[in-house]
Predict the structure.
Amino acid sequence: DTEVTQTPKHLVMGMTNKKSLKCEQHMGHRAMYWYKQKAKKPPELMFVYSYEKLSINESVPSRFSPECPNSSLLNLHLHALQPEDSALYLCASSLSLGQGGTDTQYFGPGTRLTVL
Amino acid sequence: SQQGEEDPQALSIQEGENATMNCSYKTSINNLQWYRQNSGRGLVHLILIRSNEREKHSGRLRVTLDTSKKSSSLLITASRAADTASYFCALYNQGGKLIFGQGTELSVKP
C-alpha cells in the first residue's frame, strides 16, 4: 500500500468554526508532513513529525494545531482561521526525516479548504 | 536560496511532441527530485537523480543533472494529453526540508 489518504477532500468553514483535517498512511513511514499550497504556487512546508514527535514548525500561526496520535495518523486542527488561509492542504509521508536528503515523499490528494 | 528556479513557467505543446523543463539551483546538493501535480491534486514523485549521476531514465522521462552548472532538466518524450500537469523540481536543504521550485505548468493539446 503506497497510498496517503486525506479527509475530507473539500472543506468550507467560517472564521469561528473548529474543524480538523486527517491524514493516514500504512507504509510504515516514520516522518509525516503538512504542506500548504496556494494556487499556482509550490507547496510550502508547515509542520514535520518524526517518530510521532513534532520536529519542525515553520512558524505557523497557532490557529493551526498539528497532532500525531500514532505512527499512521496525522491531524491538523483548525480554529479561528482567516480567509487568506484558504488553500490546498497536503499531507505527505516518508520513510524517515530527510536528513540524508534521499527520502521520497509520498503525498496525499489534499484537502481543499475555503474559509468564509 | 537552495530553492530550484524553473523555466519555463508555462509550456504548451501538441501531443506527440517532446517537452523540456529546466531547474537551476544555487547550493551544493546530494540529489534532486522531480514531482508532478495534476490540477488541484497531490504531488507524485517522478524521479530522483543523485549528485554523482548525470542522466536517469524512467519510461518516457529523462532527467539530466549538471552539477557544474547547477542545473537539471526533465524531458518528457512523445507527450500525451494526460501529461498535462505542473512539474516541480525539489531539493532537500541542510535542515532536512524539501524545498520546491516554482514549477512549470505543462499543457499538452490533443
Notes: Chain B touches chain A through 26 residues (CB under 8 Å). The radius of gyration of chain B is 13 Å. DSSP finds no helices and eleven strands in chain B. Chain B has a mean pLDDT of 92.
